[in-house]
Amino acid sequence: MKLPYLTADLPGIGGTLKSRDEDFVVEEIPAYPPSGTGDHVFVRYEKRGLTTPQAVTVIARALGVRDRDIGVAGMKDRQAVTTQWISLPPPVTPEVALALVLDQVRVLEAVRHNHKLRTGHLRGNRFRLVVRSVTGEAAGTAAAILSRLVEPPGAPNWYGEQRFGRDGDNAQKGRALVLGERPLGRDRKLDRLMVSSLQSELFNHWLVARLADGLYRSAIPGDVMHKVAGGMFDSTEPDVDGPRVAMGEIVPTGPMFGVSMRAPAPGSAAAEREATILAASGLTLESFATVRAIAEGTRRDAAIAITDATVAAVEDTLEVTFALPAGAYATAVMRELMKPE
Fold first, then answer.
1. CA torsion sign, 76 to 147 to 335 to 158?
2. Where are the beta strands (DSSP E) in 178-246?
3. For 290, phi and psi rounded to 5 degrees?
4. Across residues 48-58, what is the average pLDDT?
5. Is residue 33 pLDDT above 90, yes or no?
6. Of 195, 250, 262, 269, which one is least surrounded by beta carbons within 10 A?
7. How far is CA 63 from CA 31, 57, 90, in A?
8. For 177-226, how does the pLDDT look when each residue is reduced to its tens digit (9 = 90+)?
9. pLDDT over threshold 80, residue 341
10. Which domains are delineated in the chain?
11. How many beta carbons lie within 10 A of that of residue 209, not counting itself?
12. For residue 4, how many other CB atoms are within 10 A of its CB?
């Protein structure tokens, strides 16, 4: 799927990202600090050239514990230098964790806590990214694009290429599961990934239509709105809610389709738009009943708030830093800056 640019009127900086692991540095921002007491051990560690599951396996084997007993808040890129928190189960102690010497993994901190770290227990991530082989105008161009992207509601919350698999066919496989053309297998985690790819593709279609129709910074009847740091509500007064979107108080949400998803009010403009996306794909909301056990459905913010953005030029490279909320892709921001397509 070819995604549009929010800043299409501005040229991209070009260049190359991820020429080496050190060019993509990620620091996880935890939702809360470890308490200092308890049976579990929260560990902050750095990894290079490994996915998070691969790093967890390396640590689990070194400690003689099961992978599934290690708690992880979020996944991090393989081709990068990333710092994140995990939790280790008893009887592992902070001293044992700090004594680990492993290839591609370095333990930085170990503190006791009273429960296992759960998926999603993070505030977001800080990024320091280096773009190589850029022109002399890149810094000014990047600053102009970022200044536009930080305007509420933020940058489009696209799902990136990595969501759809190496061959780009994960969504197609998920569609086969939803339609019953392929039975659910024993590996529910893999099936969940395939269906999630389909949900992500449909969300991207919804967001493409939103931008194309000039509704990115607007509200329409029935929109399921997300209050910043708050709950959700249905928009019944778009003339009131539209300015709130533009001020960054609320953000429209798009569908991650499933039978338990919070849907717009029946008959509303927002509901009609979501039904159109499903119909174009030969699906209905009821189609997802076959995968209820692995994909209930949810909402996803249409935009992501970018904070602490900076740009610095060093010879023919550009260093870009910013912070994003949990679940947002840095590559979606860099795509706007680099405009590779």
1. positive
2. 224-227, 232-234
3. -65, -20
4. 96
5. yes
6. 262
7. 26, 10, 11
8. 999 998 888 888 899 999 999 999 999 999 999 999 999 999 999 999 99
9. no
10. 32-120 (3.30.2350.20), 124-150+306-338 (3.30.1070), 155-304 (3.30.2350.20)
11. 16
12. 11
Closest CA to 164 of 55, 3, 334, 338: 3
List, in order, residues 6 or more apart from 224 with CB less than 8 Å away: 232, 233, 234, 235, 252, 253, 262, 263, 264, 270, 299
Active-site annotation holds for 103:
no
Question: In the predicted model, is pLDDT for residue 229 greater than 90?
Answer: no
Residues whose CB is less than 8 angstroms from the CB of residue 220 and which lie 6 or more positions away in sequence, other chains included? 235, 238, 268, 269, 270, 273
| CA 52, chain centre distance (Å) | 15
**Rounded to the nearest 10 degrees, what angle do helices 188-212 and 170-178 cross at?**
110
Token pair 């929010």 in the structure block, residue:
6
Which residues, listed in sequence order, are joined to residue 45 by a DSSP beta bridge? 84, 107
> How far is it, in rounded angstroms, from Cα 337 to Cα 332?
9
Give the active site residue among 23, 67, 77, 316. 77
